[in-house]
Amino acid sequence: MSLSLAGKTAIVTGAAKGIGLAIARHFVDRGARVMFADCDETALAEAVDGQTGEDSPIRGYGGDLSQKLAMANLLSATVDAFDRIDILVNASRNCLLSDPLNPEDQSLEAMLKQNLMTSLRLSQMTAKRMIAQAEKDGNEDGPVGAIVNISSLAAQRTQPELLAYSIAGAALDQATRSLALALAPQRIRVNGIAIASVMTASLQAALRDNPDWRGEIEEKTPLGRIAAPSELVDAVQFLSADGAGFVTGQILTIDGGRGLLDVVAAPGY
């Protein structure tokens, strides 16, 4: 089974920090050429750290990917830099708490836009580029591309404060399965990874404000700890590599065993 990413070109969204940054750096270390994409241009500049020379496997794209024009520009910038697109990792995500009994609460609209529609639209546009690329290359039977969506265990668990986040996550999981079926004839695989608590900058900040949450999260996670971003990257590599060529439409859960229990932990984590 080949899990090599050497020579592949990937786009990773949310790549300025946290999970997206860990994935993007891992891909570069494994020989891929990677477009780091994020709306936070300041953090993105720090992430790429000037390593974007003509011969570098790293490029950066800053823009609001909820806008179709920004998506199109991202794809064009990637092709201009690396000539092709083989992998898309939709790692950009956000978590807003909801007031489930307030009809004026706008969190659902925001979460659907950020965590569902951006990933869905970018996947659709990227798939079209991949298909056109395969036709141009005369690729009639080999793998054409892989898309990986980063989702959440919240999509499978009920927690009132996460009403919007959970709905958006469940919708993204269904979009993953639907796209997998739609793109299978084109030899593009689509999979997802559902994660639980990961020690990102946002969780670190939340734990500083709510120190009791750490104990609650660890107690309700069978493996007894919070995952590091680096613990997700091998799974993303597997789903992106040609060695997973018969895997599509799957949601791989990486949660330290929490999904085995009928419990929820601290809001959002």
From TrEMBL:
Keywords: Oxidoreductase. Pfam families: adh_short_C2. The keyword Oxidoreductase applies. InterPro entries: NAD(P)-bd_dom_sf, SDR_fam. GO terms for molecular function: oxidoreductase activity. It comes from the Bacteria. PANTHER family: OXIDOREDUCTASE, SHORT-CHAIN DEHYDROGENASE/REDUCTASE FAMILY (AFU_ORTHOLOGUE AFUA_5G02870), SHORT-CHAIN DEHYDROGENASE_REDUCTASE FAMILY PROTEIN. Belongs to the short-chain dehydrogenases/reductases (SDR) family. This is 7-alpha-hydroxysteroid dehydrogenase. It comes from Albidovulum denitrificans. The lineage of its organism: Bacteria, Pseudomonadati, Pseudomonadota, Alphaproteobacteria, Rhodobacterales.
